[in-house]
Amino acid sequence: MAKNKIPYFLTAAVLVIGLTISCQSKGGSGNEASVAVLTQLLQGSGSGTTSNCRNFLPQESGNIYVADQIVSAPANSGIGFKDSYCSANGVRGLDLFDGSLDVYTLDPSGIGALLILGWSGKKVLPGAGIDFMVYENPFFIGVQNNTNSFHSVYLEPIVVEVGNDLANWCGWNPMYANSNPSVFSNDPSVWTRFAGITPFVYNQESNPMTVSAVYNSDVVHGGGGGDGFDLADTNFGTTGSGCTGSLKTDLQTNGFLYIKLVPAITALPSLPIPAGNGTPDIDGVIAKNLSP
To answer: Which keywords does this chain's UniProt record carry (predicted)?
Structure first.
């Protein structure tokens, strides 16, 4: 379920009811937590609420190309946070302590634990440095100012793979390196080569950024945030269903058509991921270089 303080108008009735809720919000890290819980239920539970993200379109500029093609989204209902369009309409981060609401929520298991996006028939081409960014909606936990150590994140890890035929995929060998591997950690540094780890502030309307900033994951020190992936990474091609040496070489040389996102709780069930950290909320994916 999407997690955040809700920056939309709420009726007085909802506010009154929200103030009576004492449960802890999965998302909002501020005083509106109880209201966030209620609003999340109204928007994301299939109650008939229309999706706000339908009001927005992807905006592209040089070297920022949105994955605007929804290839497979089995959990899609077209309603609230189950509207897959929210994952393909651009990127809309908020701030360090609040995750985006322009998101499509994956299921923790079953056929709905999958999202495949593309670039409408164009290939993501390899280039220097980061080739693409994945944006989930993590946020930093704790005091909401610069005294925060920025070592604790509400995160929902995602396994990322790419391919060309929707059957064979190559990934980046994601690793969980907590000192106690049987215990879940909110420290982003122990989640390597996963998506859903790094908060982001890049927003195509309200916080546009230079290309170099957008492809900089260091959100604390001026980068746009999000999780970046490089086809030239030495770990690429060491994991993935159907990933052969020849496929790895082809993808690294000629690029890929599709990206597959699966909750780590599903793809790597041996990891100690709580249920509350197993339903990633996808804001979008962007690539730096596309084929003509």
So the answer is: Lipoprotein
